Amino acid sequence: MVGVAGMNMLVAAHSGPDLPTVDDFLPPEILFQGTPFAINRIILIRIVATLIMLLVLGITAMRVKLIPGRWQAAIEWLLDFVRDNIVYQVMGKLRGQRYIPMITTIFLTILVFNLCGIIPGMNMAATATITMPLVFALWCLCQYWIAGIREKGLGRFLKDELFPKGVPIPIYILLTPIQLLELLIIRPVSLTIRLFANMLSGHIMVALCLAATQWFMIDTANKLWIPVGAMTFVAGFAMTLFEAFVAALQAFIFAILTTAYINMSYPESD
To answer: Which domain holds residue 116?
Structure first.
């Protein structure tokens, strides 16, 4: 018995920590397997996070008071921040009023989805796979086209986008295809990759630190590794705090870039 136990500890000591893999971000289906409505862990996180967000905002709206309490004041501050420091700051008040609901929805949803990566029980940002960031980026692209066509008409919109003023005619041979790629692909892809890559890398760093902590402090038989485990635990805690900051920062960046892109489709932005 002692020999078997010792062998198991030796194997654990040499196997190393259980590090995160790509499979962690492509979890198997857990509900409605084999149907178009199949749900895996990350989709379930998105559903739960959305329901919680709607419930919190709904209850806050129903209990709104003329003199707000601390919670209502915090929610109002967050909404005012998006309105004043993102939408109005970029677009101005007159034009920005149209886009306050859209930008607020994008900001709050991305913020909550990002924070899921550090919430116990979820432990994965709902934006850590490419699907969700791509949906928001395509929404931005559609609104960019809609605003441009509404303000300029389709012909003038495409002319302004593909044939910028002040450029020598021969240069259009090279510039126009690049402008078309930027209009249809580069902007939405850049928005998608920026959000997806930041949240994915943050999740991996936190997971690496905590996996190393478990191995150094619990799984390995050599107690000399415990101080190393303590350092990786501190690093994991610091990375968790940093990930919370990145979650808010990425929501802000995505929202302000979306606002700026839409604003560029208006005639005054030529």
So the answer is: 15-269
pLDDT at 267: 75
Q: Could you tell me which residues are beta bridge partners of residue 128?
A: none
Q: Which structure tokens are listed for 19?
A: 């590090």
Using DSSP's 3-state secondary structure scheme, residue 29 falls into strand
Looking at the chain, which runs of residues are DSSP E strands? 29-31, 39-40
Q: What's the maximum distance between 2 C-alpha atoms anywhere in the chain?
A: 84
Q: pLDDT tens, 72-115?
A: 889 999 999 999 999 999 998 888 899 999 999 999 999 999 99
Checking phi first, is residue 35 left (phi over 0); if not, alpha (psi -120 to 50) or beta?
beta
Q: Could you tell me if residue 234 is inside a domain?
A: yes
Q: Which amino acid is at 151?
A: E
Q: Residue 6 falls within a domain, yes or no?
A: no
Residue 61: strand, helix, or coil? helix
Instruction: Say if 7 falls within a structural domain.
Output: no
Lowest mean pLDDT among 172-176, 180-184, 228-232: 228-232
- For residue 36, the Cα-to-chain-centroid distance in whole angstroms is 25
In a domain, 248, yes or no: yes
Domains in the chain: how many in total? 1
pTM, two decimal places:
0.83
**Phi-psi region for residue 89, left (φ > 0), alpha (ψ -120 to 50) or beta?**
alpha
Amino acid, single-letter form, for residue 152: K
